[in-house]
Amino acid sequence: MLNILLLVAAYLFMEFVAWSNHKYVMHGFLWVWHKDHHIIDQKKARLEDLEFSGFEKNDLFFLVYAIPAIILIICGLAFSIFSMVYIGAGITLYGFTYFMIHDVMIHRRLNLPFLWNHQNRFFRSVVRAHLAHHRPKNKKDFDNFGLLVFPKRYFKE
Ligand SMILES: [Zn+2]
Ligand SMILES: [Zn+2]
């Protein structure tokens, strides 16, 4: 039971990590890694135009997160400290969610059309909130750095 809580906590914590990393690191001193993810914004003028565009330097951030998760899982298994395995699994699950939502659902980098068109109101709001960061109408839109947690004004259809 404690382990499941640790997994959920690690998952939720990763949204905080993703938000703070995006705000302070990616748009800070590691802008060189994140830049190409925004440079292609021009191409994303219309949602229909979004296509798989190969790899971005921005993808390096997946490695940055995968490495601690892998180390936690391997060490946890090696030393039978299973709480480490669950924390590693929480980080991995978040990474998977982030990839499916951010890279497949929003940016359509994989050809999985059934994930592009969604009836779910929450997912539609997630897409709207993230695209506001890419194509901001004002500073408040641009300042939306989270993925799953965002201001409730984006729920408005
Ligand atoms: Zn950004
Ligand atoms: Zn994006």
Sheet/helix structural class: mainly alpha
- Which segments are poorly predicted (pLDDT under 50) over 5 or more consecutive residues? 45-50
Strand content: under 5%
> Helical proportion?
55-70%
- What is the makeup of the main sheet? none
Contiguous helical run count: 7
Domain count: the total is 1
| Topology order in helix (H) and strand (E) letters | HHHHHHH
Q: Rounded to an integer, what's the Rg over CA atoms?
A: 17 Å
**Ligand kinds:** zinc ion
The total count of strands amounts to: 0
Report the principal-axis shape.
Answer: globular
How far from one another are the termini?
A: 39 Å
Average pLDDT reading: 89
Polypeptide structure, described:
- Helix 1 packs across helix 2 and helix 1 (2-29) packs across helix 4 (82-106).
- This protein is mainly alpha-helical and 157 residues long.
- It has helices spanning 2-29, 31-39, 60-78, 82-106, 113-116, 121-134, 139-142.
- The radius of gyration is 17 Å and the shape is globular.
- The protein contains 7 helices and no strands.
- Helix content is 66%, strand content 0%.
- The chain has one domain (2-23, 60-155).
- The structure holds zinc ion (2 copies).
